[in-house]
Design a protein that fits this description.
Length: 183
């Protein structure tokens, strides 16, 4: 089943007190922007004070995309990104971060939901929350890389790069992976 982002966007905008679909309005308080409506008994939030670095690092260091990543690198990445956490009570059970200029470009990274909390629609709700965030509306390009979640992201409009011949990268193996082949 495809989840329509508009259903969630309208709830999000109503909770922020701004009319949908207008983006980039100033908030009276930071907490207004950080609070996203509760998903069942799970809570999705952009409040940086709720992020649990140790839990995020523990998951990312075991992931296929950043095995062995040091905690200080994770902390620096979080500090320079717009982060979304999924919480069950006080426990963080999911995470995503967006690297963005908040004007024309964003890159979605480090998305996960812990194994015991999957199959409840949390990843879909997380992507809905990300797309509904006022700082991420109206961007010209929103990119991501995934090995195994193409079906999830396709539901939200992500497609293979239209002109891959125009994209380039500098790929340097991180210091903590010097003995491992790059993927």
């Amino acid at each position: 089943m495809r989840y329509r982002a508009n259903r969630f966007c309208n709830l999000t905008y109503m909770s922020f007190g701004i009319p949908a679909p207008h983006a980039r309005h100033a908030f009276a308080r930071l907490s207004d922007a950080a609070r996203i409506p509760r998903v069942n008994t799970y809570d999705i939030s952009t409040d940086p004070s709720r992020l649990q670095l140790a839990a995020i690092h523990a998951t990312l260091t075991r992931s296929y995309w950043s095995p062995g990543v040091p905690e200080d690198v994770v902390a620096r990445a979080i500090a320079n990104s717009l982060c979304f956490g999924i919480y069950l009570g006080d426990a963080q059970v999911g995470f995503a971060r967006v690297v963005t200029d908040k004007a024309s470009f964003a890159y979605l990274a480090d998305v996960y939901v812990l194994e015991g909390h999957r199959r409840q629609g949390l990843s879909k709700r997380l992507v809905e929350a990300i797309q509904a965030h006022p700082d991420l509306r109206g961007l010209r390009r929103f990119m991501l890389a995934t090995k195994d979640a193409h079906g999830l992201y396709a539901q939200f409009g992500f497609r293979p790069v239209a002109a891959p011949e125009r994209l380039m990268e500098i790929r340097t193996p991180p210091a903590w992976l010097k003995d491992s082949p790059t993927s």
